[in-house]
Amino acid sequence: MNGAADLGGMMGFGPVVPEPEGEYFHADWERRALALTLAAGAAGRWNIDVSRHARESLHPADYLTSSYYAIWVKGLERLLVAAGLVGADELAQRRVLRPGEPVRVWSADDAAAAMAAGGPSDRAADTEARFAVGDPVRTRVLHPTGHTRLPRYARGKAGVVERVHGAHVLPDARAHGAGEQPQWLYTVRFAGRELWGATAAPDLSVTIEAWESYMDPA
Amino acid sequence: MADDDMAGRVEALESILVEKGYVDPAALDKIIATYEQDVGPRNGARVVARSWTDAAFRERLLADATAAITELGYGGRQGEHMVALENTPDEHHVVVCTLCSCYPWPVLGLPPTWYKSPAYRSRVVLDPRSVLADFGVTLPPVTRIAVHDSTAEVRYLVVPMRPPGTDDLDEDALAALVTRDAMIGTALL
User: Fold this and answer.
1) pLDDT per residue over B105-124, tens digit each?
2) Long-range CB pairs of A55-62, under 8 A, 24+ apart, other chains included
3) Is there a catalytic annotation at residue B130?
């Protein structure tokens, strides 16, 4: 979707403000927001693509004026309500009005094991790769109303395949309950001037990861 | 601001989720401790120092970064599909996630605020030299710049160039020279 999260190429946000290594949180609620978001995922009612879509679906004005962990909190609230695990009335009143339902819950050890294990997104491929390293490609002009990982600035652009990653879960499908539909995933490199025109630095290039259905041969 | 009373809002949310039996506070504490104390950019610095001192490891890192990083005991969430990008005098790499905040947690820990900020995500793909200037970094004019937008589950680790005059340093001393920002591509060593 063309939401506020798709930021590449926007202007007017001012300077980037560096910060020291090891400074992960700026308030204690940010710690809890991180942990709640990860731990609530154990219930298995959504996946990473659904959760990204919940965040990018925030009203653009809300997204752009919220700190990153606030975006996570608002996204988590939406996920919980959509899954029927928490009522909007409970969030509004800040108290439990109905008992919870049984879900999988991480213990401390479970959480540590899940962080250490991760969740790979590659899958067995049941087709041949359409593209090879070095192939010229052009991304499609797509404006889906649902989730996609093809940024606006890289749509309809000519590039070259740089890496072939195997088949990976298609976020556009899994974000909407349509299963994993794995597709071949590629790193594609674009010249800066292809993306941004003549004012871009001549020595700039940008890569994205693109699923097969995002591209045609060029 | 849209963040008014986030502390109260998150406290209430945690209380609801605990009371409903959906989360265990001990798991929350464990997650925070993991990423505040155990998993951070010193892991990535170890990977970089090893690649500087062990040519065979460097080859494995560039061929299959996920497997090579696992050799050092690092891996897991947000590091399932790693790619290492080696800076050279000819090409400098910078990593971003314009769509959200994708970042290689097992080697760099949680991302800094600026990495997730609209200022960084919007401008680094368009005009990375101006972003590097915000960090006080100026690249030589002969160095091309490649920006890598992490739009899938592939995660990038930049291997900075080894600083001159470090031939006598061992792996520990070299790792201490490697900064988080250098492994994202917004600093030089």
Assistant:
1) 999 999 999 999 999 999 99
2) A55/A5, A55/B100, A56/A1, A56/A3, A56/A4, A56/A5, A56/A6, A56/A147, A56/B99, A56/B100, A57/A1, A57/A3, A58/A3, A58/A4, A59/A4, A60/A3, A60/A4, A61/A4, A62/B2
3) no
